[in-house]
Amino acid sequence: MKKLSSMATTATAVGIDVGDRISHWCALDKAGEVVGRGRMRTTAEAVTEQAQAWRGARVALENGTHSGWMSRALTAAGCETTVANPSRWRGTAHMSKNDRNDAEALARVVRLDPRLLFPIEHRGEQHQQDLAVIRSRAQLVKTRTQLVNSTRGLVKSLGARLPRADAAYFTQKTWSEVPEALRPALAPLYRTLAALNQEIRTLDREIEQLSQKRYPQTAGLRSVPGVGPVTALTYVLTLGDPHRFPRSRDAGAYLGLRPRQRQSGERDPQLGIAKNGDCCLRSLLVECAHHVLSRGPDSALKRWGLALAAGGKRVKRRALVAVARKLAVLLHRLWITGRLFRPFPEAVPEETVDAGLRAHRSLGTAAAA
Hints:
By secondary structure, the protein is an alpha/beta fold. It has 3 domains: about 1-115, Ribonuclease H-like superfamily/Ribonuclease H (Nucleotidyltransferase, domain 5), CATH 3.30.420; about 125-215; about 220-260 and about 275-369, no CATH class. Helices cover about 50% and strands about 10% of the residues. The chain contains 15 helices and 5 strands. β1 (about 15) and β2 (about 20-30) form a beta hairpin. α2 (about 45-50) packs parallel to α3, α5 (about 125-155) packs across α9 and α9 (about 230-240) runs antiparallel to α11 (about 280-295). It is globular.
């Protein structure tokens, strides 16, 4: 403990290379000299105890599975915590890359300027807990899809074919078509699918209750055709605070729906989207874009998307992403203003139309780039 209190007076920057079980740390003084190195268990108790020696210091760690609770524990202990974005910062302090050297690299960068780490901001603990409900549902849906595909493949192997059916009603509509010879083998899969459907329905009710009790702002987002309770709640929980973005257009870039750039001189190739941010929410927005362009009611957004999709398959995929990006921007604007979706906003009197919403309608070619 004496060593910890001595370090507390000299350490001004600390880097932590987070491991699943053991994390390495390195502490620097004002002059950039190493005043301490060590390892600690990646547990709340060990991190909180070690952080007492770093009170008031800048502490940097990379984003990952444990970074959320670790950053909250370090901040509560009095540290100035920075969570580095590993997809944008790939630094090292030595020729040899290992946990010890990575910790030192983080400490040296955060000592100079935390902005060089492209810091990210974690959502609150309550938001993380509520988001776990959606993540659990997504995993169950993925498992159900895999079981349905496996069942269809097993039936095809005997020359038969199951009829089309929505995954939620697959067991009721297809069991009668399963060949008698396969029923003993497929019965466990059907029982598992029935149990999964029940669990998914239970989580759907829980998501609906969460939206009504804690996140009433999702009601406005659900006024957009194709945006249901799961997408609306995922959007709110992922972004956390809508005011973190100075412009609604930044929400699309935050979710990785903006084209990547690799410009050099006169060379400016057309690349795919960045795909940074939350992949689950990005997938949900693409599904909503599918609904808008196919089964959704007539609207300015649908007409705009269909005009972009006029062409081959590649053009249609780009149009789908463009509509998803526009949905990300639109949902943020509805959240900020508290307005409901209007299929044709041009019909609204000019004096009542928000300036930001008018700017959103003018995205046009920029969204298709």
